Amino acid sequence: MVSRQVCTVALLLLCGFIPTYASVYQVSLQNSNRYKIDYLTDGNLQHALRSIAAPSNVKELDLSGNPLSRISANDLNAFTNLELLNLSSNVLFETVDLGFLNDIHFREAHTVDLRGNWLQCESLRKFLGIDKQLNKNTRRYSNPVGEEPCNNQSEVKRVGIYCCDELLAPFADRLIDLKRKELVPNSGQSTESDRCELEKQARQRKINELQNKLTNEKNVLEKSISETDLEIINLQNLLNETVSSLQLDPSITNQGPLQLLRAIVQWYEEQYEKEQRDKDSTIEMFHRLVQMEKSLRGDVESLEKQKKTEQVNLSKVEDELTEMENRNDSDGDDNEDIF
Ligand SMILES: *[C@@H]1O[C@H](CO)[C@@H](O)[C@H](O)[C@H]1NC(C)=O
Ligand SMILES: *[C@@H]1O[C@H](CO)[C@@H](O)[C@H](O)[C@H]1NC(C)=O
Ligand SMILES: *[C@@H]1O[C@H](CO)[C@@H](O)[C@H](O)[C@H]1NC(C)=O
Ligand SMILES: *[C@@H]1O[C@H](CO)[C@@H](O)[C@H](O)[C@H]1NC(C)=O
Ligand SMILES: *[C@@H]1O[C@H](CO)[C@@H](O)[C@H](O)[C@H]1NC(C)=O
């Protein structure tokens, strides 16, 4: 019964989180220093990262498969010993400043998995190039084993192992490019607005996915809460019944289940004490009876002894009597004369 109540409390706590979608994220410890966080959004990222108790012990941080569109070195300040940062399958766009990777306190050899994002190829090339010069071979930015194919969209290409958006030029250059495209309509395969639309769709897909997951979870929780309510009512009924079958004061059924339980336990304790007292007095009586038996046995023995001497005396008397009778017979005539 106690565990059921703990369960209820846990459910209520969980439900408290449900209305605020932004704060729902799920941190799972996969082994002693490997964490995975699901249901992350740009809005709850900082909160989620701060919820990890000893960030300096974390070696692997898996943030993959979320709708994250931004992340900065600041967010990861406390994680001073990272070996693997998995940012794959988020919606990081080329507007993300990859320079943040330089500011994270990685251990010497480490991996950052950026696959499955929408990073601009040019940004990646530039970043990887700069990085190679600065850090030689100490850093790795991918899972070296196996390459995952980018999808076959015309704009999605590959730099090293990264899927990226092949845009003609980064940032300022792109603006010029855009202007040019505007001036020559239908000349390019892809326009700035197409690209924005792609980004928007990708982000929307992830957000929809997240919302569906959360809605499902909410339904499951709501269902289990109503089940729990039912169980609490059953429990209350059981307690009410117990109270009436034990003939306890019926007014206590107005109190909560814990108080009822306490009253019932108290009743059983009193019952136990009473039985204990009965048992003690029965034992005492038994001892008294044993004592009595012993003294009766003594009495019987002495009476038997007395009976024996009386029998001896009786047979003596009988002997005497017989003797007297014999004598009476033999000298009957003489005696007749006397009387
Ligand atoms: C990152 O996460 C994805 C999805 O969970 C996984 O497939 C991939 O192997 C991970 N990358 C590394 C380097 O572990
Ligand atoms: C992408 O295209 C290449 C050839 O253009 C083809 O061999 C490959 O199977 C395609 N991949 C996917 C995932 O469709
Ligand atoms: C238990 O008894 C009280 C008082 O009689 C009543 O108010 C309450 O509804 C009962 N609970 C259940 C679950 O029957
Ligand atoms: C039996 O006889 C003896 C002597 O004759 C006497 O002292 C004794 O009291 C008698 N016992 C009983 C039980 O009458
Ligand atoms: C002895 O004899 C007399 C007379 O015959 C009789 O009355 C008496 O009862 C006898 N006594 C006994 C003890 O038998």
UniProtKB/TrEMBL annotation:
InterPro entries, per database record: Leu-rich_rpt, LRIM1_APL1C-like_dimer, LRR_dom_sf
Keyword entries, A-Z: Coiled coil, Signal
Boundaries of every LRIM1/APL1C-like dimerization domain copy: 169-328
Coiled-coil zones: 193-227
Chain segments carrying region Disordered: 301-339
Ranges of Basic and acidic residues composition bias in the record: 301-330
Gene3D superfamilies (alphabetical): 1.20.5.4090, 6.10.280.140, Ribonuclease Inhibitor (3.80.10.10)
PROSITE patterns: LRR (PS51450)
Signal sequence, renumbered to the chain: 1-22
Protein name according to UniProt: LRIM1/APL1C-like dimerization domain-containing protein
Organism (species): Anopheles farauti
Phylogenetic placement of the source organism: Eukaryota, Metazoa, Ecdysozoa, Arthropoda, Hexapoda
